[in-house]
Specification:
- It is built from 15 helices and 18 strands.
- The protein is an alpha+beta fold.
- Strands 10, 11, 12, 14 and 16 form a five-stranded antiparallel beta sheet that branches. The protein has a four-stranded antiparallel beta sheet with strand order 15-13-17-18, with no helix packed on it. Strands 5-6-7 form a three-stranded antiparallel beta sheet, with no helix packed on it.
- Helix 6 (143-169) packs across helix 8.
Length: 463
Amino acid sequence: MTNAPNNAGQEVSLYESREKIHYREVKGRFDRLRDLSVLVLLGAYYIGPWIRWDDRQAILFDLPARKFYIFGLTFWPHDFIFLSWILIICAVSLFFFTALAGRLWCGYACPQTVWTQAFVWMERWVEGSHTKRRKLDAGPWTAEKIFKKSLKQFLWVGFALWTGFIFVGYFTPVDVLARKIVTFTTGGWETFWVLFYGFATYGNAAFMREQVCKYMCPYARFQSAMFDKDTLIISYDEKRGEPRGRGKKGINREEAGLGDCINCTLCVQACPTGIDIRDGLQYECIACGACIDACDSIMDQVGSPRGLIKYTTEHAIAGEKTKVFRPRIMIYGTLLTLLVVGFFVAIGNRADLHLDVLRDRNALFRETLEGRVENVYSLKVHNKTNKEATIELVVTGLPGLTVETDPEVLVLQPGELRTVPARVQVSRDAASAGGHDIEFGIRRDNVENIEASREARFMLPLN
């Protein structure tokens, strides 16, 4: 039900239809910072697939081959721990920077904010300033309006499809994908993801915009759990700004009983989510700083000091000292540092070879004619490098152990994963009856140290 009668017999709407926000463009230091952030992030996204590294795409997630290339590194499915590690680092980083400086992620780096800004740039280029856009939307459908709306949609759809193409270019070599598109030979999944990601970009950045931040983003809901009175947020200085009023030109506002806020509402007009920051911090605020630039420009015009709206803390507004190094910051910062350092140490020490060992389940052991006991194993040896490797197998754990493989000399091509049968033998009297721990190790022929190892059980018969 969308309408309900009240006691006076009138119908009251329970839902308010959305009014498109044409926020005012303002200039200032935070506007320049946002523009720089958009250019850097979008530049990295769109240029990334075209960068070459060792005759291949520098960043490529080759799902059919189960290989992830990131510049000089190659990751395999058993390197999934590194992906999990990165996700944990991202989560802790979000906690750390939110507790320290509020929603900087939302205002400057969130994909929703970044792509929305790019779509708004195209809209401004075609339709003009916020007042012209609002007037155009409200006006009748003339030839000029049809032309501008059509041109805008053409740019939006083309940009969205290009975004989808680049996205798929991280999973299919981008030059190969380009040739497939030109010749209309793309596969079903490639076509689906180009269209799906393009549609998602268009829907979020061109149509829903601030509604994603206000109604869909979970971060806006739980951010307050990471805030405290020392968190940097955008705030209106109520003590300095109230009471609001324009007053006559040239009057002494303090003697007239007026605050510094002239109630121009420019801060509201510049807000991409349409809130009034003078009503206090709200979950819709994405901390972009547009209201600060707008207010500072007015303060410059009326001759008042800047900072009526600014990045500050609740303690600073109350005249108390802000504590930067507080328990939660120290905990988050220490944990984040350990995770980042540990990640790079682990990457630096990552073995170029991988080994898995499985016992033959058909027989626990067998005795040879020479009176030795033999156990059979299946080895999965993986060369994770981009170069050919000759592998040497070493087995330790019992005196006199010998091992035979087929083939005797194991040569693996770049990225090759091979299953190799291994027969391990030892003298019957080398140890007591039952199971014993042994260790398989592999190394390249030009490396002294064991690069990968796995433990296994060796079975000896009862005497």
